[in-house]
Structure formats: structure tokens, C-alpha cells
Design brief:
Elements: H1 6-23, H2 36-42, E1 52-57, H3 69-74, E2 80-86, E3 104-105, E4 112-115, E5 133-137, H4 147-162, E6 165-169, E7 181-184, E8 199-201, H5 206-215, E9 222-226, H6 237-240, H7 254-263, E10 283-287, H8 291-299, E11 306-313, E12 325-332, H9 340-354, H10 364-371, H11 375-381, H12 386-404
Parallel strand pairs: 1-2, 1-5, 2-4, 5-6, 6-9
Antiparallel strand pairs: 3-4, 7-8, 10-12, 11-12
Length: 411
């Protein structure tokens, strides 16, 4: 039974709603890491000494409070900012993979936005006019086959040629810094999705990679890495306490970043990897593939951190658009134990056994480019086991692990 007239209850409810509206949205929890851009904004910017900057960034270039780096720089009248440079997917991250990105003037900031995934992938001398220092603030996903680190390398190469400095505002590797998975890129297969001989899952931050690119691979630009504070190599993304901003349309959450280094490599072998569906890089299958048989086979294998659920889906875009596909969904049971590259090899070998006709390689060049080696393709065709394929990469992985030590910044 209501105590008091109805109007009193309605007034109390209205007052509560007003209070909540005035209180605003819930605040973000405090992060466990101070990002490189936050170190720059609070302290290191003073080392510019009046020099002007250009910012290489996209939607992921935000502080732990989700403030875009360009907005934060513009709020400091003592920092001269001349231009923005955007990578694949554009400044807002809304362009599909491989889509041509145009240059334009940004209405929000009033700054020119120069595309590094359009007519050129290197900044030109005209774009760099009046710029002394290039700041790089983009969240990577920890896989060699992701173009943001290639954009970083091209920016460094151009900076060397044009006598500019590059400052990397460092960010976490969402996959952590302890697990390394091969293969290491064979320079014969170098491309924009893999420029240098590093492991597929490299376990390095963009700042650490920049140091390696600059010294070991001979770029030689004037480089400075603005290191994070509080970051440890053992951290996976959730350990950082940071909010995830989708790095591209098909990486909506950090768990997808964890499966991408492997599932991103199977499509050129004729296996749909969920791109075009609601679970990119979480599905693996093909037309009329027996998902139950595939799931049973994979679940009987000693594959750490993953369970395989029989699944069916119909992509809405891409080559497979409108086709009913079947296969498996990856269900991660132990994210720290998950080895995405191994999972990809396991899936390809399992499909070869269960449904050999589903393995289709229309372009050896494309598959070798994706993997950075022809060893996967030739081993798959030759009937090699998962263990044999993984062992074939061990030497390169061990060499890479030893070589990267001098470029690591964090414990």
C-alpha cells in the first residue's frame, strides 16, 4: 500500500531522475598505467621548446580518460600543432580494411588530415612543411600483420630523409610482452603487412618496435620514445585498467585482438575467419564444412586456452557474403594461455584432414605474404603435422627473442 498521496511518490521519482541527470555519466575507473601520451601532455611537451608537431593518430590515440590526443594538445596554447596524419581505416577508424583513405580538413580541429593510406603511404615533404617533430600515438594489437606498425616505420623513414624528429607516445601491447609466436618474417615476403623480420606475435610495444626498427633494421631517424609508467610485460589488456577503443572495424574488443594474430591468416587458405559476421576472427569454417566433426577433432587436441564450439553463420560482406557457412567458434577459456598462431595452424591441419577440398589457395603469393613465409603453405601441402610446422619456426623465434632484448623498455 502506498504511504502518502501519489503526487509525492511521483515528485520523489522525478527528483531522483533529475539528480541522476545532474550527476552525469559514471566516471571511468582509474587506470593502472600512465600512457606515453599522458606523460607527454603533463611533462615532455616542454622539450619541444616551441617547435611544431604533426600527430600520427586515429581514434585509438586517446588518454586513459578517453580524450583524443589532438584535442588535448590543442587545449595547451603553448604547443604548436600543424597537421594530423591518419593510417589505414582513417582518423575515425570507420573505413573498411584495405579501403582507400582520402585527405581532408578536419571540421572538429580545423587541421589538415593527411592520409597515409591513400595516394601515398609515406608523408610527403609538402605534408611536413612547418613540422619539426612527428608524434605517433596509435594503439597497436600486437601482431606483425597489422599495418599501423608499418605506417610507423614509413613515418620514421621519411623523418630521416626530411630531417624531422619522431616521438613515439608509447602504449601497451594488449597481448602482453611475454608470449612470442612465429613465424618470423622471411624478408623475401616483406610487404606493408610485414616489413621487417619480427615474429608474428612479437610481444613488444610500439615504442620498443620503433627502437628495433631504427637500430637493427637501419632506419636511423632522430627517435625518442616517451615511455609509459606502471606498465609491465606480464600485463594483458584488462590488467592495464584502460578502456578498449576498437582499433579497426573488425577488432571491436581486446579479446578479438588476441585471436587476430592467427585467425587473421587463414582466409587466403580458403577458410572464412568470421570477417563479415558479428564475430570477426572468432569463427573458422567454410561452405558445407562439418562443424561438429571439426570441433570434435580440435577439442581432442592439446590446444591450450581454447574450446571449439560447432557453429554456423552467414557473412553479410566480403567474398563470402550471403553464403551459409559452418565450422567452429573459438571460445577462450584461458586468455593468458591462448596461442593464436598455433590455433590457426591447428585449424588448417584439421580441415585438411576432415575436409581437404575446403582448403583452397587461389594465390600462393597472398598466403605467403600473410604468413611472411612459404613454409606454412608448403608444409600444409606436404602433409606435415602441426608439431612439424611449429618446430620449423622455432629457430627464427629464438633468434628474434634474443635480438629484441636490447630494445625492451619494460620489466
Amino acid at each position: 500500500m502506498m504511504k502518502g498521496p501519489p503526487a509525492v511518490g511521483l515528485l520523489a521519482a522525478a527528483s531522483m531522475l533529475l539528480f541522476r541527470a545532474m550527476a552525469g555519466a559514471a566516471p571511468l575507473p582509474a587506470a593502472n598505467v600512465v600512457l606515453g601520451d599522458e606523460v607527454f601532455l603533463s611533462d615532455t611537451w616542454r622539450d619541444l621548446h616551441g617547435r611544431c608537431v604533426g600527430v600520427v593518430t586515429n581514434q585509438t590515440g586517446v588518454t586513459s580518460r578517453l580524450e583524443p590526443i589532438v584535442d588535448a594538445i590543442r587545449s595547451n596554447p603553448q604547443i604548436c600543432i600543424k597537421a594530423i596524419f591518419s593510417p589505414e581505416h582513417g582518423l575515425r577508424g570507420d573505413q573498411p580494411a584495405g579501403a582507400y583513405v582520402t585527405s581532408y580538413n578536419d571540421e572538429h580541429s580545423g587541421l589538415p588530415v593527411y592520409s597515409l593510406y591513400g595516394p601515398t603511404r609515406h608523408p610527403t615533404a609538402r605534408m611536413l612543411n612547418g613540422i619539426d617533430v612527428l608524434l605517433f600515438d596509435i594503439q597497436d594489437v600486437g601482431s606483425r600483420a597489422y599495418t599501423y606498425i608499418s605506417t610507423m616505420a614509413y613515418v620514421m623513414q621519411t623523418a630521416k630523409a626530411q630531417h624531422k624528429e619522431v616521438w613515439i607516445l608509447d602504449r601497451p601491447n594488449p597481448l602482453g610482452g611475454e608470449t612470442i609466436e612465429g613465424p618470423v618474417l622471411d624478408p623475401t615476403f616483406a610487404s606493408f603487412i610485414g616489413l621487417y623480420p619480427i615474429a608474428m606475435r612479437h610481444g613488444m610495444t610500439v615504442g620498443e618496435l620503433a627502437r628495433m626498427f631504427n637500430e637493427r633494421f637501419g632506419i636511423g631517424c632522430a627517435l625518442r620514445v616517451i615511455a609509459m609508467r606502471g606498465y609491465r610485460r606480464s600485463m594483458l589488456w584488462p590488467d592495464t585498467g584502460l578502456a578498449w577503443v576498437p582499433t579497426s572495424p573488425n577488432i571491436p574488443d581486446w579479446e578479438t585482438a588476441l585471436t587476430y594474430p592467427g585467425l587473421g591468416l587463414i582466409d587466403n587458405a580458403g577458410i572464412n575467419n568470421g570477417v563479415g559476421s558479428t564475430k570477426p576472427f572468432k569463427y573458422a569454417g567454410a561452405y558445407k564444412l562439418d562443424g561438429f566433426a571439426l570441433g570434435d577433432y580440435l577439442n581432442a587436441r592439446p590446444i591450450p586456452g581454447v574450446h571449439f564450439r560447432p557453429a554456423a553463420w552467414t557473412p553479410t560482406s566480403g567474398f563470402w557474403a550471403g553464403k551459409s557457412l559452418s565450422g567452429v567458434e573459438l571460445v577462450l577459456t584461458d586468455r593468458r594461455a591462448t596461442q593464436a598462431v598455433r590455433v590457426a595452424v591447428e585449424i588448417l591441419v584439421a580441415v585438411r584432414r576432415i575436409s581437404p577440398s575446403s582448403i583452397s589457395i587461389p594465390s600462393a603469393e597472398a598466403l605467403d605474404r600473410d604468413w611472411g613465409t612459404d613454409k606454412l603453405r608448403t608444409a600444409l601441402a606436404g602433409g606435415a603435422s602441426v608439431e612439424d610446422i611449429l618446430r620449423s619456426w622455432d629457430g627464427g623465434v629464438h633468434e628474434f627473442e634474443a635480438a629484441r632484448q636490447r630494445y625492451l623498455i619494460y620489466e
